Amino acid sequence: MIRPYVNLKSENKINDFMLVLQNNIKKFESLEGVIGITLNGGMSRGYADYLSEIDIVIYLDKRNYELWNNGKSPIPIGITMFKKCLYDIKILNLEEEKQKSWDSVALWDLSYAKVLYDPNGEIKKLISDKLMIKTEPLQAEGLLFGCWWYFRLAGDIWIHRGDIIQGHYMLNSAVTKLIEALFIANGEYIPHEKWIIHFSRTLPWTPIQWNKRLLEAMSTGDLSLESLIKRQSIIEKLWEEVDLYIAKNECPKFNLRVMQKTFYDLLKLLLQNDFITVEEWNRKASLSLLSEEPFFSFVTVINEKIVIDKEKAFSIKPEDLYYWHYEILEKVLSEI
């Protein structure tokens, strides 16, 4: 599968930058405690221009990492000029990184990284181990909920209250969540914000006319109330397409929104039983969730059991719950 890539019309000076790096890399390799070095940033993705810096990550043993990180580094760390070229140098404790959980943005950067120095194969193994954590499209559930919250709940609030600037500010956040969800829908890690829109254009799947509609989703128009309402509608349609794409491919028989999937699964687990053990529930979710709707109204925790009152669940009316919760409960009850 072709991954997102840099697609720019500006002059690409990657070969010039790579030559500079090749001429200087021995200096970094020779430093005490260096286990490996990777090329990161835009150059690892095949692009550089006069505004670029050379991003390298130096992996150190524990002793030297502590020295470098406590003011005893043999070279400048961070943004620095080295032989008339701008570098951004980051240091990491290799053993510590092996144990850490990396977030999606860090994994995205790592997935494009190029190994420059790795005499014992330890960096290659680290990359392989970290990238075993794959992105699954259904993991976009929380991002889709976040997008919906910003464009629908917060959007409606500020449309009603007439604060156009505040409304557009909320829609800005909705667009961010939408684009992040789009990457997850494609099985990709979430890029750094510096690259996220650019890379979205070369994803394997996007909503139809993505470039044009993304521009519309980001436009504040003439800052009238009508512009806010129009923008909200544009974002909602894009959100619906991303949601439908994930549902069609991952759970085609699921007739609610992807953002409702976890609550649906948890409600089904409860309502298919008279009780379940606390241990069984804890494998799926936190007990604290039972103090919230739509669970609170019909479950009781007694000793190490969660007791389900199905009669009470069936008696719940639309006006008793927030509509988002009631939609899920109604769906589950219709299936048992």
Strand content: 5-15%
CATH architecture of the largest domain: 2-Layer Sandwich
Largest sheet: 5 strands, mixed
* Strand segment count: 8
The arrangement of helices and strands along the chain is HEHEHEEHHEHHHHHHHEHEEHH
The helix content is: 40-55%
Radius of gyration over all CA atoms, rounded:
25 Å
Query: So what's the overall shape?
Result: globular
Instruction: Give the termini distance in whole angstroms.
Output: 41 Å
Report the average pLDDT across residues.
97
GO molecular function, one term: nucleotidyltransferase activity
Protein name: Nucleotidyltransferase domain-containing protein
Pfam families: NTP_transf_2
Domain Polymerase nucleotidyl transferase: 25-119
Structure description:
There is one protein chain. The chain is an alpha+beta fold. The chain contains 15 helices and eight strands. Helix 7 packs antiparallel against helix 11, helix 10 packs across helix 11 and helix 12 crosses helix 15. The radius of gyration is 25 Å and the shape is globular. The protein starts with 13 loop residues before the first helix and ends with a helix. The relative contact order is 0.08. The mean pLDDT is 97. This is Nucleotidyltransferase domain-containing protein. Keywords: Transferase. One of its GO terms (molecular function) is nucleotidyltransferase activity.
List the keywords.
336 residues; Four Helix Bundle (Hemerythrin (Met), subunit A); 3 domains; 5-stranded mixed beta sheet; 3-stranded antiparallel beta sheet; nucleotidyltransferase activity; Nucleotidyltransferase domain-containing protein; Polymerase_NTP_transf_dom
